[in-house]
Fold each of these.
Amino acid sequence: MGKLGKKIGFIGTGQMGEAILKGLLTTELFEPDDIYVMDILDSRLQYLKENFGIAHLSSDRSTAYNYIVDNCDIVVLSIKPQVLKDVVECIKSCNWDKEKHTVISIIGGINTSFIEKYLPEIPVVRVMPNTPMLVNIGASGVAPGKNASKEHAKLVHGMFEALGVSYLVEEKYIDSITAISGCGPAYVYMMIEAMADGGVELGLPREMAQTLAAQTVMGGAKMILDTGEHPGKLKDKVCSPGGSTIAGVRALEQGAFRGTIMNAIEAGKVRMEEVGKKEESNK
C-alpha cells in the first residue's frame, strides 16, 4: 500500500484524470493495487493497465460504481459536466459511509453543492488541477464543500501539494484558478510554439528552436518562483538600453500581448461560470 495508506477510485480517466493518477503513483502516495478505475472505454482501461499496472478496472456501469465505492476511501469524479447528472444518479444508491469516504470532484464549473444534493452526508472536495501534474509540476486549487472537515481538506490538499503547488481556498475562487492554472498551460504551449516558429523563420532547426523556447520559459518561471521578484523587475533586468530585448518588448506591446493574455484569463473564467449555470439549469 502507498504512503497514504488508502485506496482511491477514479470514475473517468481523461487527460486530467491520467495526470493525477500518474502523479500519485510517481510520488508513491498510492501503489497500482490501491487504484480502481471505471471508464466507459475499454481501450482506455487497457492503456492504463499496460502503462501504469492498474489491475482494478471496469467499464461495466452496472457494477463498477459499487465496486469502487465498496473498495475505496477516496472517489475521484473525473468526468465531463454533461454526464455528471447521470453518474450521480447512479452512484447515490451505493454504500456510502460518511466516516470513510471522501469525494474529490475535478469537474470544471460544477460546485460542490450540486454533488452534495445527491450525496447529502458525504464530504466533497472540489479541485482544479492541471495537466503538468504528469511531470509533478502541477498547480491546483482545493475547495472543501459544506460536509468536508479540516481533516478532509488537509488530506486532499496534501495529495495535490505532492504533485506541485496547491492552494486551499474558498470555492468562489476555483473558477478564477481554473482560468489561470487550468487553462494556462495551453497558452504557454502556444507561446513556446510561436517562439519556436520565430526561430525557424530565422534559420534555426525546429528541434533546437523548440528546446530553446521551452527551456527559456521554464527558466523564466523558475526565476520568478525562486527569487520572489516581480516579473516586471526581472523583465527590466533583461532589457538593455537600445537593445534587442526592449525592441522585442515594444513589438509585443504593439500587439497588445499583456492585454490579450488578460482577456484570455477572463474568458476562461466566464466560460467556467457558463458551464456551471447550464448544468444547474439542467438539474
Amino acid sequence: MIAPNHDIVENDMWPISNTQTFVNYFESNGIEQASCGGVTANFSSDVTEMCGEGTVQYTDMSSGDITSWEWTFEGGDPETSIEQNPTVTYNTVGSWNVTLTVNGEEGATFMVEDYLAVYEIPEVTVDPFDGACIFWTPYELTGGMPEGGDYSGPGVNDNIFDPEAAGLGTHTITYTYISDDGCENFAEEPLTVDACTGIDEIKESEVQVYPNPATDIVNISSKSYMVSVRIFSYTGQMLESVELNDKIYQFNTTSYPAGVYSISIETEESSISKRLIIK
C-alpha cells in the first residue's frame, strides 16, 4: 500500500480473505483510514410550499468541519443570513431559489432552484342570498365564485339548502373554495328563513298529483290557476321547471330513475310542495 508521499507503508498482507472488507482488514492490522477533508453543503426545511405568506425554518444538513455559513434567500426576509439554522419569512407569490455556502478547510455551495413556492390565495366571493320560506322544498345554492367550491352552514348538505332543517331566523352560509395549488379561502353571506305567514298555502285537497306512485305519466290538477311547476330530485337538484297559466299539467317520468321526488307548485296567490314516488 502506497502513502500519499509515495512511501510504501505495507507490502505483505495480500491477498485478504473474502469475508473481510478492505477497511476492516487494514484496521485489524493497525492501519487507520485517513480523512479526505473538505466540506459538503446541504440543507432542508420544515416546508417547501405555502399559501400567501408564512415562515420557513431552514436546517443545515452540511457535513465536514464547518466554520461559517452563508445563506441567500431569493424572495425572503431576510435576504441573507450567516446563522446555521435561520428562520425566513416569505410574503411574495413566486418560486424562489435558496443557496447555502459553507466554509471550512475548503468551501462548498449548495443551491436549489425554485426550492420554496409561495402560491396565491384565491379571491372568493358569494352573491347575496334571497330569503327563503320555511316550507320551501330544499334547493341548490349558487352564486359562489370561483366555481367548484362547497357551501356549508345550518340546513346545508352537499350544497343543498333545506329551509326547514335550518329553521326560522338568519343563518350564515359559507362558501369555501380550494385552488389547484391547495390554497383555501372563503366568503360568507346571511340567508334568512321566514315563516312567510303572509302567504297562504293551498289546502292539500286543492292540488292533486296522480297517479302516485307513478311509472310514466303524472298529472297535476289544481282548483286555482298554476303559474309554475318545479320538479326536484331527493338531493334537491331541480330537474324540470315550467311556467304556465293553467289548472292542469302533465309530464312524463320515463327518463327519471326510480325514487322519491318533490314537486313545487305555485299559483298566483300561494304555493305547496308534493311528494312523488316513481317506480
